[in-house]
Write a structure and sequence with these properties.
The chain is built from nine helices and no strands. It is an all-alpha fold. Helix 2 packs across helix 7, helix 6 packs antiparallel against helix 7 and helix 8 runs antiparallel to helix 9. The longest helix has 26 residues. The termini are far apart.
């Protein structure tokens, strides 16, 4: 039953990121970047499970398995998002032209910002959570679950090239979050 709850909460988290991604595409700019934060704020408020919000807190090998389950649930939630948006095609086509080492660096930056967003929420500084989310959007950082949502919202055919990009982003998000946590705990 515990695994079932984890998967359900992970699916809903992926769907919430889909809502944030769609809002960003619909509105765009600074306003859209701030509206994107409704995805993460909803996840935190409802105690859903998001890969990028969990991976920085991994301590034991068993936690990596939990992170993988969360990631799978998030992907399922992204795939359930029912809306399409023309702007997502342009966004995905642009992202796929960026060299993977740059994508990786942008994913690390996003991991750091998401870790900051989660820590801000924990200390009841929700405004910093919103700023961190808007910041990763506005600086073009790569969020694995959001990028999966953009791919789904685009309606484009999934390819091995997209898969490789997503894998690089997943790893970069994890490294960024973990680096932020390590830096926080330096004494």
């Amino acid at each position: 039953m515990k695994n079932f709850a984890l998967i359900i909460k992970s699916i809903f988290a992926g769907f919430c990121i889909g809502i944030g991604a769609y809002l960003y595409l619909q509105v765009g700019g600074i306003t859209g970047a701030f509206l994107f934060s409704i995805g993460l704020l909803s996840i935190l408020l409802l105690n859903y499970k998001l890969y990028t919000g969990f991976i920085g807190y991994v301590e034991k090998p068993k936690d990596l398995l939990t992170a993988l389950k969360i990631l799978i649930g998030n992907i399922i939630g992204c795939c359930l998002f029912p809306f399409r948006h023309e702007q997502a095609i342009n966004l995905i086509n642009l992202k796929i032209t960026i060299p993977l080492h740059i994508i990786f660096c942008k994913a690390i930056i996003c991991g750091i910002l998401i870790y900051i967003a989660i820590e801000a929420w924990k200390t009841k500084r929700e405004w910093i959570t919103m700023l961190a989310v808007a910041s990763f959007i506005l600086c073009g950082a790569e969020h694995s679950i959001a990028d999966i949502c953009y791919l789904v919202i685009s309606g484009l055919q999934f390819t091995l090239q997209y898969l490789l990009m997503i894998i690089v982003i997943v790893v970069g998000n994890g490294i960024g979050s973990y680096i932020a946590r390590l830096a926080q705990n330096i004494k």
